[in-house]
Design brief:
- It is a single chain.
- The protein is α/β, with parallel strands linked by helices and 304 residues long.
- The chain has one domain: Class I glutamine amidotransferase (GATase) domain (Rossmann fold, 3-Layer(aba) Sandwich).
- It has 10 helices and 12 strands.
- Strands 2-1-3-4-12-11-10-7 form an 8-stranded mixed sheet. Strands 5-9 form a two-stranded antiparallel sheet.
- Strand 11 and strand 12 form a beta hairpin.
- The radius of gyration is 30 Å and the shape is globular.
Length: 304
Amino acid sequence: MAHNLLAWFLMELHCRILPGAISLPEMRSRTTAPTSAMNDQSFRFPIARRLRSSPPVRSRRPVPKPVLIVLHQEHSTAGRVGRLLQARGHALDIRKPRYGDPLPETMRDHAGAVIFGGPMGANDPDEFVKAETDWIGTCLKEDAPFLGICLGAQMLAKHLGARVYTHEQGRAEVGYYRLDLTQAGRDHAGEAGFAWPSTVYQWHRDGFDCPSGAECLATGGDFPIQAIRAASKVYGIQFHPEVTPAMMCRWSVRGHERTLMPGAQLRHMHLDGWYQYDPAIRVWLDGFLDHWLKAPADISADPA
């Protein structure tokens, strides 16, 4: 019976669309009428009634707070880190103190803060460098999530009293380099539920020592300290998980001279490394951000 109903509906549609076509009543007069009384009436689909019904009630979740993004060049972006934060519902509050933007007096209205890299150094005398370095104390005092990337990590180390230095032989890490976890890094990764990548993208010629009271999570070659944790949600990393292929191309063209420094990798090796190593970096970044943005109540509720 269902097949007959569908066939009649299609014939009626055909008759309404094509002028001169045989109408459904005429077609019925030329065929044997079905025995079911239901089919003597025109068939109506219940779709419209369903569409008019009230939508299901959904529970409202609180809107996530924005994440503070500190950048250091006019056209800098937060790259993949920014995109993944937005995918989690966080707006990006972008500040550039180098160009006069103020930093917040408290982290009460932000879910976290990220200070990114730049061509300057943590030891430079510029007033904005000192202001950003001092401001990190706000995150430490309020136990707010903080992530320092490259220059941001060096600022964190300097704020905590550690040495920030240029390699004594003028070497740099520009390209992809091996990352080795310490025992503290392995333990923390197990507790946090993510796996660190074994090779990461670097773009720096300065390094830093591990500050007193912080723990070193990962080490490297020419610059031994690669990742530190200074509080429950305060991290510093030398490498660049935010980089995209477009950023990589831009950096290696505009900063071509860096790729020629001792220890650096030539430009053509960077994109090859992206295809080989980036999938693991992306997986780590996803897991890291989930852990970094968890509220304390969420963390305490995790099974031991």
